[in-house]
Specification:
heterodimer, A: mainly beta, Alpha-Beta Plaits, two-stranded antiparallel sheet, B: alpha/beta, Rossmann fold, six-stranded mixed β-sheet, 13 helices
Protein backbone atom coordinates (compact mmCIF):
# COMPACT_ATOMS: atom_id res chain seq x y z
CA UNK A 1 0.00 0.00 0.00
CA UNK A 2 1.17 3.46 -0.70
CA UNK A 3 1.22 5.18 2.66
CA UNK A 4 0.49 8.88 2.94
CA UNK A 5 3.52 10.14 1.16
CA UNK A 6 3.99 12.15 -1.93
CA UNK A 7 6.26 9.74 -3.79
CA UNK A 8 5.64 9.52 -7.50
CA UNK A 9 4.67 6.03 -8.70
CA UNK A 10 8.06 5.69 -10.34
CA UNK A 11 9.70 6.13 -6.92
CA UNK A 12 7.68 3.45 -5.10
CA UNK A 13 9.47 0.15 -4.41
CA UNK A 14 7.79 -3.21 -3.84
CA UNK A 15 8.25 -2.68 -0.10
CA UNK A 16 5.92 0.31 -0.33
CA UNK A 17 3.25 -1.99 -1.76
CA UNK A 18 3.24 -4.62 1.00
CA UNK A 19 -0.40 -4.17 1.92
CA UNK A 20 -1.93 -4.45 -1.49
CA UNK A 21 -3.43 -2.02 -3.89
CA UNK A 22 -5.10 0.22 -1.29
CA UNK A 23 -4.63 3.96 -1.28
CA UNK A 24 -5.22 5.66 2.03
CA UNK A 25 -5.23 9.08 0.41
CA UNK A 26 -8.48 9.39 -1.54
CA UNK A 27 -8.49 11.70 -4.53
CA UNK A 28 -4.76 11.33 -5.10
CA UNK A 29 -5.47 10.21 -8.68
CA UNK A 30 -5.75 13.93 -9.52
CA UNK A 31 -1.96 13.89 -9.56
CA UNK A 32 -1.92 11.20 -12.22
CA UNK A 33 -2.30 12.94 -15.57
CA UNK A 34 -4.33 10.73 -17.86
CA UNK A 35 -5.19 12.76 -20.94
CA UNK A 36 -2.00 12.42 -22.89
CA UNK A 37 -3.26 9.89 -25.44
CA UNK A 38 -6.12 12.08 -26.68
CA UNK A 39 -6.26 12.48 -30.49
CA UNK A 40 -8.90 15.24 -30.60
CA UNK A 41 -9.63 18.04 -28.14
CA UNK A 42 -12.75 20.12 -27.53
CA UNK A 43 -12.58 23.87 -28.16
CA UNK A 44 -15.24 26.15 -26.64
CA UNK A 45 -16.53 29.14 -28.60
CA UNK A 46 -17.46 31.68 -25.94
CA UNK A 47 -19.45 33.70 -28.46
CA UNK A 48 -21.97 30.85 -28.69
CA UNK A 49 -21.77 29.45 -25.12
CA UNK A 50 -24.73 30.31 -22.84
CA UNK A 51 -23.10 28.82 -19.68
CA UNK A 52 -25.80 26.11 -19.36
CA UNK A 53 -23.31 23.57 -17.95
CA UNK A 54 -24.56 20.49 -19.85
CA UNK A 55 -21.02 19.74 -21.05
CA UNK A 56 -19.87 19.76 -17.43
CA UNK A 57 -22.72 17.40 -16.40
CA UNK A 58 -22.19 14.95 -19.25
CA UNK A 59 -18.39 14.76 -19.24
CA UNK A 60 -17.69 11.14 -18.19
CA UNK A 61 -14.32 12.04 -16.72
CA UNK A 62 -15.08 15.27 -14.86
CA UNK A 63 -12.64 17.02 -17.15
CA UNK A 64 -14.90 19.98 -17.93
CA UNK A 65 -14.17 22.62 -15.32
CA UNK A 66 -16.52 25.46 -14.31
CA UNK A 67 -14.67 28.79 -14.28
CA UNK A 68 -15.26 31.81 -12.05
CA UNK A 69 -16.72 33.83 -14.93
CA UNK A 70 -19.45 31.19 -15.46
CA UNK A 71 -17.95 29.62 -18.58
CA UNK A 72 -16.70 26.03 -18.87
CA UNK A 73 -13.33 24.83 -20.15
CA UNK A 74 -11.94 21.29 -20.58
CA UNK A 75 -8.95 20.37 -18.38
CA UNK A 76 -6.71 18.91 -21.06
CA UNK A 77 -4.62 16.98 -18.50
CA UNK A 78 -7.66 14.71 -18.05
CA UNK A 79 -9.83 15.12 -21.17
CA UNK A 80 -9.70 11.92 -23.27
CA UNK A 81 -11.23 13.58 -26.33
CA UNK A 82 -14.33 11.36 -26.32
CA UNK A 83 -16.46 13.97 -28.11
CA UNK A 84 -19.53 13.81 -25.88
CA UNK A 85 -19.50 17.54 -24.94
CA UNK A 86 -20.02 18.84 -28.52
CA UNK A 87 -22.86 16.32 -28.92
CA UNK A 88 -24.76 17.55 -25.84
CA UNK A 89 -24.07 21.28 -26.29
CA UNK A 90 -27.45 22.89 -27.26
CA UNK A 91 -25.70 25.94 -28.72
CA UNK A 92 -23.17 24.00 -30.84
CA UNK A 93 -20.50 26.00 -29.02
CA UNK A 94 -18.00 23.12 -28.74
CA UNK A 95 -15.98 21.73 -31.63
CA UNK A 96 -13.57 18.80 -31.65
CA UNK A 97 -10.31 19.57 -33.43
CA UNK A 98 -7.37 17.31 -34.23
CA UNK A 99 -4.53 17.49 -31.72
CA UNK A 100 -2.09 18.37 -34.50
CA UNK A 101 -4.03 21.56 -35.22
CA UNK A 102 -3.04 24.66 -33.39
CA UNK B 1 -14.71 -31.07 27.04
CA UNK B 2 -14.32 -31.68 23.37
CA UNK B 3 -16.58 -34.35 21.89
CA UNK B 4 -15.96 -37.07 19.31
CA UNK B 5 -18.83 -37.43 16.90
CA UNK B 6 -19.54 -39.02 13.51
CA UNK B 7 -19.48 -36.32 10.86
CA UNK B 8 -19.31 -36.19 7.10
CA UNK B 9 -16.58 -33.96 5.69
CA UNK B 10 -19.04 -31.32 4.49
CA UNK B 11 -20.53 -30.94 7.94
CA UNK B 12 -17.04 -30.82 9.46
CA UNK B 13 -16.50 -27.73 7.27
CA UNK B 14 -19.84 -26.24 8.38
CA UNK B 15 -19.03 -26.84 12.05
CA UNK B 16 -15.64 -25.15 11.68
CA UNK B 17 -17.23 -22.11 10.00
CA UNK B 18 -19.95 -21.98 12.69
CA UNK B 19 -17.45 -22.20 15.54
CA UNK B 20 -15.32 -19.53 13.83
CA UNK B 21 -18.46 -17.36 14.10
CA UNK B 22 -18.31 -16.14 10.50
CA UNK B 23 -20.10 -12.87 9.73
CA UNK B 24 -20.94 -13.35 6.06
CA UNK B 25 -21.53 -16.42 3.88
CA UNK B 26 -22.12 -15.94 0.16
CA UNK B 27 -22.44 -19.16 -1.77
CA UNK B 28 -24.05 -20.99 -4.65
CA UNK B 29 -24.81 -24.70 -4.43
CA UNK B 30 -22.83 -27.22 -6.47
CA UNK B 31 -22.20 -30.91 -5.99
CA UNK B 32 -20.36 -32.15 -3.97
CA UNK B 33 -20.17 -28.99 -1.89
CA UNK B 34 -23.86 -28.29 -1.33
CA UNK B 35 -24.15 -29.93 2.11
CA UNK B 36 -21.70 -27.39 3.51
CA UNK B 37 -23.74 -24.33 2.69
CA UNK B 38 -27.07 -26.07 3.35
CA UNK B 39 -25.99 -26.78 6.90
CA UNK B 40 -24.74 -23.23 7.33
CA UNK B 41 -28.04 -21.90 5.97
CA UNK B 42 -29.80 -23.99 8.66
CA UNK B 43 -27.59 -22.48 11.35
CA UNK B 44 -28.29 -18.94 10.17
CA UNK B 45 -32.03 -19.66 9.89
CA UNK B 46 -32.34 -21.18 13.35
CA UNK B 47 -30.20 -18.50 14.98
CA UNK B 48 -27.27 -20.72 15.98
CA UNK B 49 -25.04 -18.60 13.76
CA UNK B 50 -25.52 -14.86 13.63
CA UNK B 51 -24.34 -14.19 10.09
CA UNK B 52 -25.54 -12.64 6.86
CA UNK B 53 -26.24 -15.40 4.36
CA UNK B 54 -26.26 -14.15 0.76
CA UNK B 55 -27.81 -16.65 -1.70
CA UNK B 56 -26.23 -15.36 -4.90
CA UNK B 57 -27.00 -16.26 -8.52
CA UNK B 58 -23.59 -17.70 -9.47
CA UNK B 59 -20.16 -18.53 -8.14
CA UNK B 60 -18.71 -15.41 -9.76
CA UNK B 61 -21.18 -13.45 -7.66
CA UNK B 62 -20.45 -15.59 -4.61
CA UNK B 63 -16.77 -14.72 -4.62
CA UNK B 64 -17.51 -11.11 -5.55
CA UNK B 65 -19.86 -10.79 -2.57
CA UNK B 66 -17.23 -12.40 -0.35
CA UNK B 67 -14.68 -9.88 -1.64
CA UNK B 68 -16.91 -6.96 -0.72
CA UNK B 69 -17.90 -8.40 2.64
CA UNK B 70 -14.30 -9.08 3.55
CA UNK B 71 -13.27 -5.59 2.45
CA UNK B 72 -15.93 -4.24 4.81
CA UNK B 73 -14.20 -6.10 7.64
CA UNK B 74 -16.44 -9.17 7.87
CA UNK B 75 -15.18 -12.69 8.60
CA UNK B 76 -16.22 -14.30 5.33
CA UNK B 77 -16.72 -17.86 4.17
CA UNK B 78 -17.79 -19.72 1.05
CA UNK B 79 -17.48 -23.14 -0.56
CA UNK B 80 -17.54 -24.49 -4.10
CA UNK B 81 -16.28 -27.18 -6.46
CA UNK B 82 -15.22 -27.80 -10.04
CA UNK B 83 -17.30 -25.85 -12.60
CA UNK B 84 -18.38 -23.35 -9.94
CA UNK B 85 -14.77 -22.96 -8.91
CA UNK B 86 -13.88 -22.14 -12.52
CA UNK B 87 -16.66 -19.57 -12.73
CA UNK B 88 -15.23 -17.71 -9.72
CA UNK B 89 -11.67 -17.95 -10.99
CA UNK B 90 -11.36 -14.31 -12.04
CA UNK B 91 -12.43 -13.08 -8.63
CA UNK B 92 -9.96 -15.38 -6.84
CA UNK B 93 -7.22 -13.08 -8.10
CA UNK B 94 -9.00 -9.94 -6.92
CA UNK B 95 -9.45 -11.34 -3.43
CA UNK B 96 -5.83 -12.37 -2.94
CA UNK B 97 -4.25 -9.29 -4.52
CA UNK B 98 -6.51 -7.07 -2.44
CA UNK B 99 -5.43 -8.96 0.70
CA UNK B 100 -8.87 -10.14 1.77
CA UNK B 101 -8.76 -13.24 3.99
CA UNK B 102 -11.82 -14.97 2.55
CA UNK B 103 -11.90 -18.62 3.62
CA UNK B 104 -13.18 -21.20 1.14
CA UNK B 105 -13.67 -24.95 1.20
CA UNK B 106 -13.31 -26.67 -2.17
CA UNK B 107 -14.79 -30.16 -2.48
CA UNK B 108 -12.47 -31.24 -5.25
CA UNK B 109 -14.16 -32.58 -8.34
CA UNK B 110 -13.06 -33.48 -11.87
CA UNK B 111 -13.56 -31.01 -14.71
CA UNK B 112 -16.12 -31.57 -17.46
CA UNK B 113 -16.43 -32.83 -20.13
CA UNK B 114 -17.36 -35.57 -19.80
CA UNK B 115 -20.00 -34.22 -17.43
CA UNK B 116 -19.30 -35.68 -14.02
CA UNK B 117 -19.49 -35.02 -10.33
CA UNK B 118 -16.71 -37.20 -8.90
CA UNK B 119 -13.51 -36.31 -7.18
CA UNK B 120 -10.02 -35.42 -8.31
CA UNK B 121 -7.83 -32.31 -8.22
CA UNK B 122 -8.43 -30.98 -11.74
CA UNK B 123 -10.25 -28.01 -10.20
CA UNK B 124 -7.74 -27.26 -7.44
CA UNK B 125 -4.72 -27.33 -9.70
CA UNK B 126 -6.05 -24.61 -12.00
CA UNK B 127 -5.90 -22.20 -9.04
CA UNK B 128 -2.21 -22.77 -8.41
CA UNK B 129 -1.17 -19.22 -9.24
CA UNK B 130 -4.14 -17.31 -7.84
CA UNK B 131 -2.17 -16.19 -4.77
CA UNK B 132 -4.33 -18.07 -2.26
CA UNK B 133 -2.88 -20.09 0.58
CA UNK B 134 -3.90 -23.67 -0.21
CA UNK B 135 -4.23 -26.63 2.14
CA UNK B 136 -5.11 -30.24 1.35
CA UNK B 137 -6.86 -32.33 4.00
CA UNK B 138 -6.55 -36.12 4.06
CA UNK B 139 -9.39 -36.94 6.48
CA UNK B 140 -12.38 -35.25 8.08
CA UNK B 141 -10.55 -34.31 11.26
CA UNK B 142 -8.04 -32.45 9.14
CA UNK B 143 -10.92 -30.89 7.24
CA UNK B 144 -12.29 -29.39 10.45
CA UNK B 145 -8.88 -28.44 11.79
CA UNK B 146 -7.66 -26.88 8.54
CA UNK B 147 -10.81 -24.80 8.03
CA UNK B 148 -10.64 -23.54 11.60
CA UNK B 149 -6.93 -22.75 11.39
CA UNK B 150 -7.46 -21.03 8.02
CA UNK B 151 -9.27 -18.16 9.71
CA UNK B 152 -6.40 -17.70 12.13
CA UNK B 153 -3.78 -17.89 9.37
CA UNK B 154 -5.50 -15.75 6.75
CA UNK B 155 -6.59 -13.04 9.17
CA UNK B 156 -3.19 -12.65 10.80
CA UNK B 157 -2.24 -9.00 10.18
CA UNK B 158 1.12 -10.19 8.82
CA UNK B 159 -0.68 -12.37 6.25
CA UNK B 160 -4.12 -11.02 5.24
CA UNK B 161 -4.50 -13.54 2.45
CA UNK B 162 -7.38 -15.80 1.46
CA UNK B 163 -7.13 -19.52 2.21
CA UNK B 164 -8.70 -22.44 0.40
CA UNK B 165 -9.03 -25.81 2.05
CA UNK B 166 -9.26 -28.69 -0.39
CA UNK B 167 -11.18 -31.80 0.55
CA UNK B 168 -11.86 -34.67 -1.82
CA UNK B 169 -15.35 -34.58 -3.30
CA UNK B 170 -17.45 -37.48 -1.95
CA UNK B 171 -14.48 -39.43 -0.54
CA UNK B 172 -14.33 -36.83 2.25
CA UNK B 173 -17.26 -34.49 1.65
CA UNK B 174 -19.85 -37.28 1.83
CA UNK B 175 -18.06 -39.86 3.97
CA UNK B 176 -18.79 -40.02 7.67
CA UNK B 177 -15.76 -40.28 9.93
CA UNK B 178 -15.20 -39.67 13.65
CA UNK B 179 -14.30 -36.02 14.21
CA UNK B 180 -13.30 -34.40 17.49
CA UNK B 181 -15.10 -31.09 17.91
CA UNK B 182 -13.56 -28.67 20.41
CA UNK B 183 -15.30 -26.51 22.97
CA UNK B 184 -16.26 -23.02 21.82
CA UNK B 185 -14.06 -21.60 24.56
CA UNK B 186 -11.02 -23.39 23.09
CA UNK B 187 -11.85 -22.05 19.63
CA UNK B 188 -12.14 -18.52 21.03
CA UNK B 189 -8.71 -18.89 22.60
CA UNK B 190 -7.23 -19.96 19.27
CA UNK B 191 -9.07 -17.50 17.04
CA UNK B 192 -9.01 -13.82 18.02
CA UNK B 193 -11.67 -11.44 16.65
CA UNK B 194 -10.99 -10.36 13.10
CA UNK B 195 -9.85 -6.82 12.38
CA UNK B 196 -8.79 -5.79 8.88
CA UNK B 197 -6.47 -2.76 9.11
CA UNK B 198 -7.91 -1.23 5.94
CA UNK B 199 -11.58 -2.17 6.17
CA UNK B 200 -13.97 0.05 4.23
CA UNK B 201 -14.92 2.95 6.51
CA UNK B 202 -17.17 5.80 5.27
CA UNK B 203 -15.56 8.18 7.79
CA UNK B 204 -12.10 7.41 6.48
CA UNK B 205 -12.41 6.92 2.71
CA UNK B 206 -9.72 5.07 0.78
CA UNK B 207 -9.27 3.93 -2.80
CA UNK B 208 -9.22 0.18 -3.52
CA UNK B 209 -7.77 -1.61 -6.55
CA UNK B 210 -7.05 1.43 -8.66
CA UNK B 211 -5.99 1.16 -12.28
CA UNK B 212 -2.23 0.62 -12.34
CA UNK B 213 0.17 0.36 -15.21
CA UNK B 214 3.55 -1.02 -16.23
CA UNK B 215 5.35 1.39 -13.90
CA UNK B 216 4.08 -0.27 -10.69
CA UNK B 217 2.55 -3.70 -11.52
CA UNK B 218 5.83 -5.57 -11.01
CA UNK B 219 6.31 -3.98 -7.58
CA UNK B 220 2.75 -4.92 -6.54
CA UNK B 221 3.19 -8.53 -7.69
CA UNK B 222 6.57 -8.94 -6.01
CA UNK B 223 5.09 -7.63 -2.76
CA UNK B 224 2.24 -10.14 -3.08
CA UNK B 225 4.62 -13.01 -3.80
CA UNK B 226 6.90 -12.19 -0.87
CA UNK B 227 3.90 -11.93 1.45
CA UNK B 228 2.58 -15.32 0.35
CA UNK B 229 6.00 -16.95 0.78
CA UNK B 230 6.49 -15.38 4.20
CA UNK B 231 3.05 -16.60 5.31
CA UNK B 232 4.56 -20.07 5.75
CA UNK B 233 6.19 -19.01 9.00
CA UNK B 234 2.86 -17.78 10.32
CA UNK B 235 1.18 -21.02 9.21
CA UNK B 236 3.80 -22.95 11.20
CA UNK B 237 3.23 -20.73 14.25
CA UNK B 238 -0.56 -21.05 13.97
CA UNK B 239 -0.37 -24.85 13.69
CA UNK B 240 2.00 -24.99 16.66
CA UNK B 241 -0.48 -23.06 18.77
CA UNK B 242 -3.33 -25.14 17.33
CA UNK B 243 -1.54 -28.25 18.55
CA UNK B 244 -0.90 -26.76 21.98
CA UNK B 245 -4.61 -26.01 22.41
CA UNK B 246 -6.29 -28.92 20.60
CA UNK B 247 -3.60 -31.62 20.84
CA UNK B 248 -3.23 -32.24 17.10
CA UNK B 249 -0.08 -30.95 15.41
CA UNK B 250 0.17 -30.38 11.66
CA UNK B 251 3.02 -29.68 9.30
CA UNK B 252 3.24 -28.71 5.62
CA UNK B 253 4.53 -32.19 4.83
CA UNK B 254 3.51 -35.13 6.99
CA UNK B 255 5.97 -37.99 7.18
CA UNK B 256 4.61 -41.51 7.68
CA UNK B 257 6.99 -44.39 8.38
CA UNK B 258 9.81 -42.61 6.58
CA UNK B 259 12.58 -43.70 8.92
CA UNK B 260 15.23 -45.52 6.94
CA UNK B 261 13.03 -45.49 3.84
CA UNK B 262 14.97 -45.51 0.59
CA UNK B 263 11.79 -45.16 -1.46
CA UNK B 264 9.19 -42.56 -0.59
CA UNK B 265 5.70 -42.27 -1.97
CA UNK B 266 4.37 -38.72 -2.05
CA UNK B 267 0.63 -38.21 -1.97
CA UNK B 268 -2.06 -35.61 -1.32
CA UNK B 269 -5.57 -35.70 0.10
CA UNK B 270 -7.69 -38.66 1.16
CA UNK B 271 -5.99 -41.30 -0.98
CA UNK B 272 -2.97 -40.78 1.27
CA UNK B 273 -4.91 -42.76 3.86
CA UNK B 274 -5.17 -45.70 1.46
CA UNK B 275 -1.51 -45.28 0.67
CA UNK B 276 -0.71 -45.49 4.39
CA UNK B 277 -2.16 -49.00 4.52
CA UNK B 278 -0.12 -49.97 1.46
CA UNK B 279 3.00 -48.67 3.22
CA UNK B 280 2.06 -50.64 6.38
CA UNK B 281 1.87 -53.86 4.37
CA UNK B 282 5.13 -53.24 2.59
CA UNK B 283 6.85 -52.40 5.86
CA UNK B 284 5.51 -55.66 7.29
CA UNK B 285 7.19 -57.42 4.37
CA UNK B 286 10.43 -55.69 5.27
CA UNK B 287 10.51 -53.21 2.39
CA UNK B 288 12.19 -49.87 3.10
CA UNK B 289 9.35 -47.62 1.93
CA UNK B 290 7.63 -44.64 3.48
CA UNK B 291 5.02 -42.00 2.70
CA UNK B 292 5.04 -38.22 2.70
CA UNK B 293 1.75 -36.32 2.50
CA UNK B 294 1.58 -32.81 1.10
CA UNK B 295 -0.75 -30.63 3.19
CA UNK B 296 0.48 -27.18 2.19
CA UNK B 297 0.44 -26.56 -1.56
CA UNK B 298 0.78 -22.76 -1.51
CA UNK B 299 3.07 -21.32 -0.32
CA UNK B 300 5.10 -24.32 -1.49
CA UNK B 301 7.04 -25.87 1.42
CA UNK B 302 10.49 -26.08 -0.17
CA UNK B 303 12.52 -26.59 2.99
CA UNK B 304 10.08 -29.07 4.53
CA UNK B 305 10.08 -31.10 1.32
CA UNK B 306 13.86 -31.20 1.22
CA UNK B 307 14.03 -32.30 4.85
CA UNK B 308 11.34 -34.95 4.33
CA UNK B 309 13.15 -36.63 1.41
CA UNK B 310 16.69 -36.04 2.70
CA UNK B 311 17.56 -39.72 3.15
CA UNK B 312 15.54 -41.13 0.25
CA UNK B 313 16.95 -42.34 -3.06
CA UNK B 314 13.70 -42.70 -4.97
CA UNK B 315 10.62 -40.50 -4.90
CA UNK B 316 7.39 -41.82 -6.37
CA UNK B 317 4.90 -38.98 -6.68
CA UNK B 318 1.19 -39.63 -6.93
CA UNK B 319 -0.92 -36.98 -8.67
CA UNK B 320 -4.71 -37.05 -8.71
CA UNK B 321 -4.84 -34.75 -11.70
CA UNK B 322 -3.59 -34.91 -15.26
CA UNK B 323 -1.65 -32.01 -16.75
CA UNK B 324 -2.57 -32.40 -20.40
CA UNK B 325 0.49 -32.25 -22.59
CA UNK B 326 2.65 -31.32 -19.63
CA UNK B 327 5.74 -32.73 -17.90
CA UNK B 328 3.75 -35.04 -15.60
CA UNK B 329 1.19 -34.34 -12.88
CA UNK B 330 1.15 -30.87 -11.32
CA UNK B 331 2.70 -32.01 -8.05
CA UNK B 332 5.59 -34.03 -9.45
CA UNK B 333 6.40 -31.16 -11.83
CA UNK B 334 6.78 -28.81 -8.90
CA UNK B 335 8.55 -31.32 -6.71
CA UNK B 336 11.15 -32.01 -9.40
CA UNK B 337 11.65 -28.31 -9.89
CA UNK B 338 11.91 -27.65 -6.15
CA UNK B 339 14.56 -30.36 -5.69
CA UNK B 340 16.52 -29.73 -8.86
CA UNK B 341 19.29 -27.73 -7.23
CA UNK B 342 19.58 -29.73 -4.03
CA UNK B 343 19.00 -33.34 -5.04
CA UNK B 344 20.13 -34.01 -8.58
CA UNK B 345 20.79 -37.62 -7.55
CA UNK B 346 17.23 -38.52 -6.56
CA UNK B 347 15.25 -40.73 -8.95
CA UNK B 348 11.65 -39.89 -9.76
CA UNK B 349 8.59 -41.73 -10.98
CA UNK B 350 5.27 -40.07 -11.68
CA UNK B 351 1.96 -41.81 -11.06
CA UNK B 352 -1.48 -40.51 -11.91
CA UNK B 353 -4.68 -42.11 -10.67
CA UNK B 354 -7.98 -41.74 -8.89
CA UNK B 355 -9.25 -39.48 -11.65
CA UNK B 356 -12.93 -38.58 -11.48
CA UNK B 357 -13.45 -40.60 -8.34
CA UNK B 358 -12.06 -43.88 -9.69
CA UNK B 359 -11.38 -46.09 -6.73
CA UNK B 360 -7.82 -47.01 -5.87
CA UNK B 361 -7.27 -50.03 -3.65
CA UNK B 362 -4.47 -50.71 -1.22
CA UNK B 363 -3.23 -53.43 -3.57
CA UNK B 364 -3.11 -50.98 -6.48
CA UNK B 365 -0.99 -48.61 -4.39
CA UNK B 366 1.35 -51.50 -3.50
CA UNK B 367 1.69 -52.43 -7.18
CA UNK B 368 2.05 -48.79 -8.20
CA UNK B 369 4.87 -48.35 -5.74
CA UNK B 370 6.66 -51.38 -7.25
CA UNK B 371 6.08 -50.02 -10.73
CA UNK B 372 7.27 -46.60 -9.61
CA UNK B 373 10.50 -48.06 -8.28
CA UNK B 374 11.00 -49.93 -11.53
CA UNK B 375 10.45 -46.76 -13.58
CA UNK B 376 12.78 -44.79 -11.33
CA UNK B 377 15.43 -47.49 -11.79
CA UNK B 378 15.13 -48.25 -15.49
CA UNK B 379 13.40 -45.16 -16.86
CA UNK B 380 10.26 -45.10 -18.96
CA UNK B 381 9.12 -43.81 -22.32
CA UNK B 382 5.94 -42.54 -20.70
CA UNK B 383 5.96 -39.16 -18.94
CA UNK B 384 3.82 -40.72 -16.21
CA UNK B 385 2.20 -44.03 -15.32
CA UNK B 386 -1.59 -44.05 -15.00
CA UNK B 387 -2.64 -46.49 -12.29
CA UNK B 388 -5.21 -49.01 -13.54
CA UNK B 389 -5.48 -47.60 -17.08
CA UNK B 390 -6.88 -50.01 -19.71
CA UNK B 391 -4.35 -50.28 -22.51
Amino acid sequence: MAEKKTKAISELTWRDMRFGNVFTEPGSAVRYKTGDWRSQRPVVDREKCNKCGLCWLYCPDGAITPLDDGYYEPDLYFCKGCGICPQVCPKKAITMIEEEEK
Amino acid sequence: MSKRIALEGSFAVSEAARMADVDVIAAYPITPQTHIIERLADYVANGELKASYIPVESEHSAMSACYGASAAGARTFTATASQGFFLMHEVLHWVSAMRQPVIMAVCNRAVAPPANIWGDYSDAMTARDTGWIQLFAANNQEVFDFVLSSFRIGEDPRVLLPVMVHLDGFSLSHVIEPVILPEQEEVNRFLPPYQHPYAIDPDNPMSYSMVMGPDIYSEIKKAQDVTLRESKEIILQAWKEFGDIFGRYYSPIESYKTEGAKTLLMSTGCLSETAKVAIDRKRDKGEDVGLIILHLWRPFPFEELYQAIKDAETLVVFDRCISLGGPGGPIISEVKSALFDKRKDIKFAGLIGGLCGRNLSVEQFEDALDKGREIAEKGSEEVFETIGIRE
